[in-house]
Design brief:
Length: 58
């Protein structure tokens, strides 16, 4: 393999590695939108009534 091909392969591999590593990072703490309020911790379920739905058998 010629030096130019080898350099191109190494550069491509380094670029691919750099892109995958930087894509995994997070960019700071999450923030709450202005029009919402923080409800954490929340109780589940909110009602004591049985839940209806497709799988409830009712």
């Amino acid at each position: 393999m010629s030096k130019s091909k080898q350099a191109a392969v190494i550069l491509t591999a380094m670029l691919a590695l750099a892109v995958t590593v930087t894509a995994c990072g997070r960019k700071g703490d999450p923030y709450l939108p202005k029009d919402q309020q923080n409800t954490y911790p929340d109780q589940y379920p909110k009602s004591t009534q049985p839940q209806g739905g497709v799988f409830s058998g009712s």
